[in-house]
Write a structure and sequence with these properties.
The structure is a homotetramer. Chain A is mainly alpha-helical. Helix content of chain A is 56%, strand content 7%. Chain A starts with 15 loop residues before the first helix and ends with a helix. Chain B binds a DNA duplex through residues 13, 15-17, 41-43, 51-55, 57-58, 60, 71-77.
DNA sequence: GTGGTCTAGACCACC
DNA sequence: GTGGTCTAGACCACA
């Protein structure tokens, strides 16, 4: 992974570590980051982004907890061997989002027909 | 508006003032709160919810900024005269959300057909 | 004076009594309200505007203090016999405003020439 | 920005947060505060001025709303990247003021000639 | 009674 | 260290 793939928004409420975490997670789900691929080292990414190494560490820790990456001492961090589940989870998550949005539109008076029409125009 | 219409979740990361704000916004969008209708006074709602008046005031301030309510000093706070635009904006916002979600699903390899199928099952 | 000549803005920070006071003062300076002319009674104006009589009373009191109106018990309130001074004061006040505005424009980098040009285009 | 640049008037009706807000806005318009420049931290300014941190925060919040400053959580508050529009708006606002003042003077019987004469004497 | 302002402090997450 | 949120109260002008 190249450092430039991470873009931070310093305004807004989302913590930096979470932005890093989510962007890497997204790249994995999209297949842009391949299994076993190396990630930049904590200090390299931190230095590139101009943030504290602890912040990058925190992001990597969360990703490791989700089994999306593995840390190999003295070698660095790598995308896990198997990230299929991650992809499936991400898809479910988005569908759940979709469901909630449509529910809300209905409560706001939009009919199922109108909603489908708009969606098919995307 | 009756105080009981607001329900707080003291756990979770969402600030209290934002919970109040979002619930009132939602009631307005749904038409449950009518134009010109009075809101509970800051003190009354704060005391009912067991929170500080400043917290309620902050919620009301944000709603006023969005032109959803007007506050008349020494009289109280009221739903705005014309709340149609707010409803339209809310609907657009959700559709935009929907669009982004579907786009992302496609990037994750889901076909339009699969997506439509899932949606119609909701 | 007719009650409809007073128009209130319930939003905004300016107190009601002060809005009433300033509008009457302005009408006097402009010569729309003539010397010796009768004002509406406190309760009449209050009832028309939908405000508390105390609020109108406060406005009238301030005007009386400035010698712009006189209260004659059991008869009502009238514009004073001589309001020339009021007019002169008002003009001075506006010129002072003008002076401060131009000073500020100069500090913002506008030259005297530019300012004069803009003003003559009004 | 140095704290000493803010001077408060504890008498008078103008709220403290608004005094802070207006002075900073003014320094920005005058170019004394440069784009991207750091502001004093909320705590630092509050402590220097002897006011509550919330009061300073309120001023900063309003400035952020006007897009004059940006706040980066855990880093501090900074003048925005592009502040030109703010300056242009400020100038327009003052010219509009000027226009209304002159209009009013004319209604009070002053001729354009008299007005110009007085202005050129400033 | 109402909202507007402010204090003196607390605790939190983040960096 | 920073800003974000919140408390528990105060006092004020206004109506």
């Amino acid at each position: 992974m190249r450092c430039e793939m991470i873009v931070l928004d310093y305004q807004g409420r989302k913590p930096i570590y979470q932005q890093i975490e989510e962007q890497i997670e997204r790249y994995i789900a999209l297949g842009i980051l391949k299994e076993q691929e190396a990630l930049p080292s904590i200090r390299e990414l931190a230095s590139y982004l101009g943030v504290n190494p602890n912040t990058v560490k925190k992001a990597y820790d969360f990703l490791e907890e989700k089994k999306l990456i593995v840390t190999i001492s003295t070698k660095g961090c790598f995308i896990s061997n198997d990230v299929r589940q991650a992809k499936i989870d991400k898809i479910s998550e988005i569908y759940e989002n979709l469901r909630r949005n449509i529910e809300e539109l209905e409560q706001l008076g939009e009919t199922k027909e109108e909603i489908f029409k708009r969606i098919s125009e995307f």
